[in-house]
Write a structure and sequence with these properties.
Organism: Arctocephalus gazella
InterPro entries: ApoC-1_sf, ApoC-I
Distance between the termini: 95 Å
Shape: elongated
Number of strands: 0
Low-confidence stretches: none
Number of helices: 3
GO molecular function: fatty acid binding; phospholipase inhibitor activity
Strand content: under 5%
Largest sheet: none
Family: Belongs to the apolipoprotein C1 family.
Keywords: Lipid transport, Secreted, Signal, Transport, VLDL
Oligomer: single chain
Length: about 90
């Protein structure tokens, strides 16, 4: 009984696959795709620029750079003092 039902389903699926894509799903022409490449690249560049600017502004406004700088300064001074006391 299962084989009797699965064969027609298999035939219908095979027919749909062999039919190919519908006209609305067909790939666009190469020339139209090539014409849109500069616009897409410009849009990508603008988006990337905006995101980079936003990230840089976020970093500038955060306390992370100042905290990092202070930590490095403190650590460097501690190491310098330890070296002075060790080799003096």
């Amino acid at each position: 009984m299962r084989l009797f039902l699965s064969l027609p389903v298999l035939v219908v699926v095979l027919a749909m696959v062999l039919e190919g894509p519908a006209p609305a799903q067909a790939a666009p022409e190469i020339s139209s795709t090539l014409e849109r490449i500069p616009d897409k690249l410009k849009e990508f560049g603008n988006t990337l620029e905006n995101k980079a600017r936003a990230a840089i502004e976020s970093i500038k406004q955060s306390d992370l750079p100042a905290k990092t700088r202070n930590w490095f300064s403190e650590t460097f001074n501690k190491v310098k003092e330890q070296l002075k006391t060790t080799f003096s």
